[in-house]
Every structure is written in structure tokens, then in C-alpha cells.
## 1
Amino acid sequence: TWTTEAFVEESVREIRAKVGDKRVLLALSGGVDSSTLAFLLHRAIGDQLTCMFIDQGFMRKGEPERLVQIFDQQFHIPVVYVNSRERFLTQLKGVTDPEEKRRLIGHEFIKVFEEESNRLGPFDYLAQGTLYPDVIESADSNVDPQTGERVAVKIKSHHNVGGLPKNLRFKLVEPLRKLFKDEVRKLARAIGLPEEIVRRHPFPGPGLAIRIIGEVTSERLKILRDADFIVRDEISKQGMYHDFWQAFAVLLPVRSVGVMGDQRTYAHPIVLRLITSEDGMTADWARVPYDLLETISNRIVNEVRGVNRVVYDITSKPPGTIEWE
Ligand code: XMP
């Protein structure tokens, strides 16, 4: 039977045997896979591991700070925090097409990744949180024909990245490759990762950038981040966080008329997207109590400047997608 202690011990042995005295680079994403991966590698090889976190500026409120804090203070694993917020925003200036946003973000991510790995390296290995289903999906596509070893062609923390340039084709360490997601969660819990990471809702690589319809600006990011925080805060307070597959806010670039006090307002709507799903392939809008919708709506309109209307998305997938872009 599968026990976490046995798994950790075996992984540590395997990692040490494979890596020897070489250096390993790991890009944290804030999710459960890369966090668990960091723990295992650090246990196995200590400071031969470099963890970096590239902050694109599209995470949710407080998330980057919290991640670095958990690693530093709870696990004593140093994290190289790379603040790239400005350069991602610059890339997205004037861009409104969803796929173009993804492409530009992916491209910029690789550039930052390359610069940072040159600055911090050299590294022989890249640690990836590949899970069993990913191994099956990608079949043989990234096995080096000469050595039979798996070689990095993509960065898992970023679905949309076109591919790693040749000079970044590190060898891979993938200690989670035999696990399914529920086993990673079990392991994550056993090693003491907080529930906020263990059971975090899926969050897209391009983050809030694809939840702002149209152009991404720092003002819009602030509005969406504050609204999104209220959504999560209220459903957590109601003990409902785990009732949803995902629960988030979307900011629309249009404006509508409203009234506040004796002032006419002309501001953005926020869309609430609260959904249930088994696997993200199909999804249903959640039948939540009206009181919850009311509380969220009141708080967003009262607390977030720049928003004067909240609407609820009652479209399932299909025909809608989960995200709006
Ligand atoms: P859709 O919107 O296609 O989303 O119904 C299905 C699942 O995929 C997530 N998603 C993404 N994840 N990069 C990611 O890493 C992306 O560009 C991306 N787009 C959608 C979405 O959050 C949902 O869980």
C-alpha cells in the first residue's frame, strides 16, 4: 500500500541517485504540484536546489507574498522572487485578443526564465511537477533519442508556453511522475502544506490577465484583484470554498450607468463565475443561495472603486467555457 513516508523516502533516494552533486532549477507556480515538488527536492538535495518564482503580476491578491512566506518561514526553503510585473504589463499594452495575450505572456515568461536561469545557473536539471496523466499524454515526444532520458521541452507551470529554446533543454527530474492528482494532494497534506495550497482551485497560467476582457492595465488589475478577493472571502466565510470547482470574478471593459448616493456613476460590471465540475471538461453554473450573491454583490459595489454592477453568469460548459477568454 501507498504511504507518504515510504514515497518520500524512495523519492529522496531516487533524486539523490539521479542528480548527484549537480544543481537543479525549479519554477514555483503557487499550485500544489510545484510546491510539493519543491519540498521533495529540498529534502533530497538541499541547497543544490534553486526555487524561483516569477511574478507576472497576474496572481490573486496576496498570493505571491503568501507563497514566499510559506516557503521561507514554514519550510525554510529559500525562494528567488522575480518581480516581472512591469515587463508583462508592457508586453500586453494595447493587446485585446485572448490568444495573443496568452502567446505574449508565454513568450515573456520564457524570456524571464532564460535570463534568470543564466543569472542563477548554470543548472543541469529542471525539476518539473509532471504527473502520471501528463506522462501518458506527452508519450515519447520529449525523450532524448540518444540517452533515452526525458528532456524538458516545455515548462509545466505554464501551459501556453510554445516550447523551450534549445539552450534551455535541461535534463528533467520528475519525482511526481507516477502520481495522480489526489495522491499529490495526500502527499502535500502529509508534508504540511497548508490547505490553501493543497485544495486551491485550478488557476490558469496567464492568471487574471485572461479574466480582464480586453486590454489589461494596472488599474483594471487592481479592480479585478479586489473584486476576486471578495468572492473568495465570502465563499470561504460561508464554508463553501470546496463546493466549487472554480469561483472567480471577471472584469468587463464596458461601462454602464448606476447611482450611488446622489451621484451618477459610470463604471465597469463584474461577472461572477461560480461553477461546479468533475474535471473542467464540462461544467455547470452553481445554484447558490441568493443571499450569498447579494452579499458578494453589495460588498463589491461598495468596496471596489470602479465597479457599479455585478452580474451572475448562468452559462454551463458547453456551450460556455469556464473562463471568459
Ligand atoms: P475553459 O475556459 O477552457 O477552461 O473552459 C478549462 C480549464 O482550464 C483552465 N484554463 C487555463 N489554464 N492556461 C492554463 O494554465 C490557460 O491559458 C487556461 N485557459 C483556461 C481554466 O481555468 C479551467 O480550469
## 2
Amino acid sequence: MSKKIKIVVLGGGTAGWMSAAALAGVATDKVCEVVLIESEEIGTVGVGEATIPAIREFNDRLGIPEPEMMRKTHATFKLGIEFVDWGERGTSYIHPFGTYGKTIAGTDFHQHWLRLARAHQVPPLEAFSFAVNACRAGKFDFPAENKTAIDAAYSYAYHFDAGLYARYLRDFSERKGVKRLEGKVVQVQTSPDSGHVHSLLLESGEKVSGDYFIDCSGFRSLLLGETLGVAFESWKHWLACDSAVAVASERGAFFPPCTRATAKGAGWQWRIPLQHRTGNGYVYSSDIISNDEATVSLLSGLDEPAITEPRTLRFEAGKRACAWDKNCIAIGLSGGFLEPLESTSIYLIQIAIINFLKLMPGKVADPRVIREYNRLIDLEYERVRDFLILHYHLNRRDDSVLWRYCQRMAVPDSLREKIELFGRRGYIEQYRHGLFAPPSWLGVYMGQGLMPENVEPLVGVVTEERVRDELSSLKTAIDRKVAQMQDHEAFIAGYCPAG
Ligand code: FAD
């Protein structure tokens, strides 16, 4: 009997092709045989254009050349997300992929900044973030290789056409030996003894069996949810938005290296600049406005004329009670969904497949491996969930029931403690793995106006005068470097113009 494990991936959206590409590219055909089934008739969800820097690790691990991938997916660079009107209306802040300043005498930069800001006029914290300054100026360059340089203190991700990215990964996977089957799965056969998925029956009559089944069937969750009956845990009471309407518009004249998320009465609107067009969508609560009202609001809030018909999608925030049950692992929308405010879904796909590779089972999985996998995935989901809730909870708007509800709602204990710790003395919890790093939390806390009552006592080891000098020379150095950078648009034209 062959020692190779046979893995069947159901679904050819971003999750399906990322899973197949990683299995074929990392585990290779020495360890597993991969078959992917997709149905063009059913299609994919067709949204998901913004990413976070972790995607670069995924692509690098597979040996994907960046300029080629960017050319083929019409990608642009992303240094962060601009949040407009999330604190008070009329305000804007950027959550950057990078740090604020540098530690002074071993204590976090923001603690020193807070100490001065409480008593004096100082530039806002974001003036000391390289990535924020580059975003606001519409500039881009790669981080410096010298890790101590001021222009090394940031990272970057991409905006891309997710359909083209899946297509790119499909070509990659097929070159690495993944077998693709086109067709609709009409029946899932399970073993009467173990309850494991045994095979998938296609409309054509073909039967596909395997050792493991990766369920990338989208919101329907055909294998883990429908067949194995793993329940969906709803987080709608914390993340109330349950719908989105998406539309593409013409390419914009302003081409910033960041996503924009503008808070609105019933949710928020995204703007994602790609090389050839702009992606837009309104994520909203259907308890507050109808699909038609959301569509009118989206279209009237566009910077550029629409070039496609608006498309409405329904979803619910939450996840399956476990991501891996028996011999079935749900990756992507079939395993859970957290709204795209921080562009985390593709990351959750990536981390799911990387954890699977780390815990790669033999033909039969050890139950401890399954438990560990589920623990890791739960942790990732809960951290992303808490970070998303933070944006809603700290809003200072009073123009709709949604925002008032979010201000008052009871948040998970894990988040409540984080907010309290920051509110007391600006402390931000650190963890070694997973999203999000302290600068991300800091960006949102401060961006939405949560000013700590106190600072860490250790800031007292340096004089205020020294801190003022450090702030001033840092700001001068950032401003000078950013002024020397190329415009984002010109950078792309030289590096990876879409063919
Ligand atoms: P799908 O794209 O739905 O693919 C499902 C696949 O399963 C398809 O190929 C389908 O044909 C196949 N299939 C289903 N049933 C059968 C069957 N019976 N037989 C055969 N094949 C079948 N993520 C981000 O990271 N960044 C973003 O900016 C972002 N924005 C988003 C905005 C919105 C409004 C939404 C809803 C999601 C967004 N996402 C974003 C999430 C992102 O779109 C998804 O995580 C990603 O596309 C993965 O989808 P998927 O592959 O799991 O499912």
C-alpha cells in the first residue's frame, strides 16, 4: 500500500488554490497526492482584494516571484489601512504595517510620547510612523535592509485581484502535479463505522476518494458543516454586520499604498486601489438598512464611476466549533468568516494550511494532532475577532443604533482586559505568534482616542528634554526619507506593471 497520503481539496476559490499550492509546493508529491475539485457553474465568492504582510511569507515559502505575481494579479502595494470617521466623524487615522518610533532607554516609544503629550503640544503619534507618512504622501519603496535604519521599521502587503491570484496559484499547483477536476459534487459518502468522509461523487458519476478532505467549499461548508454536522458558532452579537455590496470602479487618480475604510451609518465602506481598477464595497448590518439603501449609499460614496453592476453578499461572523473533525479540515469560508475590516481572511487561510503542514498527519491522524490544530486555529480566530471588535467598540459616533450598540455592548473578557490594561498605563499585551503585534493595537487605541490615564514609571529614567530631542530628530529623519521616495504609482510602473 502506498505511504503517500491522498488529499482531496473541495473548492477552487482562494482557499482551495492556496491549500493545493502549499501542499504541492511544500509537502511535494513525495509526501502527498493532491486532487482539487471545483465547479465553474457554482463559482467563487469573488471578493477579497486586500491582504496583510504575512502573505509574503506564504509566497516566499512557495518560491513565488513577487514582480511576476504582482503583474499577473494587477497588484499594488499596501502599507496599512486608513480609517476614516471611526473615532469621531471628520477624523482619520492609519493602522500602519510598522512601528511608531524606537524604544528610548529600553522603554516603548509610545510611553515616552504619551508622557510628553499629556502635558505639552507634540506632533501626533502617527507622525513618528514611517509607514503612515509614506501612505499619506502616496509613496512607496521597499523597507531598508539595514534593520536599524528609520526606513526599515515597516512592512508591506498587497492589494490584488483575488480571482487572478487564485488563477496564478492554479497554474503553479498544476505545474507541481496537482490534479484538477471540474465538476459539481452531488453526494458526499461517509464510512458507516468511523463517520469519516470516504469519497465525493461528482455529477459526471466519477467518485473521488482520499485519506483527507480539505473543505474549501465556501460559506456552504459542504463537508465539515453539512456532512459532518460541525456546528457554526455565531459572533454576530459582537460583529453585527452581516451583508456587503461590492462594486468595481475606474482606476483612481489618487493611488495611495493603503486600503481605506470609511465608517458609515450602518457599517463601513472599503476602497482598494488596484492597477487597473478600484475595488469598493459597503459592509453593513441588514437590521439597519436594506440592500437597496446600501447600494445607493455605496454608489454615492464612490470616488470614481462604477464599471460593474453592484453585487450583494450575505454572511455571518463566526466560525465552526472546530476546524478539523475526523478526516476533514475546513479552510477558508467553510471554516468561518470574520468581516474584511482588517483584511484577515486570506491570512486565516494561510495560517490554517501552514499549521496543517506543521502537524502533517500520516494516513490516520492522531487525535492529539487534531486537538492541537483546533487549538491553534481557535486562538487565531479569537485574536482577530477581538481586534475587529475593538474598532467597533471604541467608536465615538452617535449617529446610528449600530454605533451606539457597539459602544455599550459587553465585549469578550479577553478584549476587555486588554482595553483596561491599555487604558490604565498604555500597556499592550505581546504574543510570539499570531496577529496582531503591539503597534497594530496601539494604532487603533490611539486612532480612536483611547488616551491612557498613566504611563509606565520607567519613562522617568530619561529627561523630558532628551525625549523631545529624540522626537524632533526622528520626525526630521522620517520626513526627509519619505520626501526622497518614489510615488507609489511610478514605483509600480517600474517594478511590476500589469501586462
Ligand atoms: P469561495 O470563493 O466561495 O470558493 C468556494 C469553491 O468551492 C468554489 O470554487 C466553488 O466552485 C466550490 N464548490 C462549492 N460547492 C461545490 C460543489 N458542490 N462541487 C464542486 N465545487 C464546489 N479576504 C481578505 O483576505 N481580504 C479582503 O479584503 C476580503 N474582502 C472580503 C469582502 C467580503 C464582502 C467578503 C464576503 C469576503 C472577503 N474576504 C476578504 C474573504 C475572502 O473573499 C475569502 O476568504 C476567500 O475568497 C476564500 O473564499 P473560499 O475559497 O473559502 O470560498
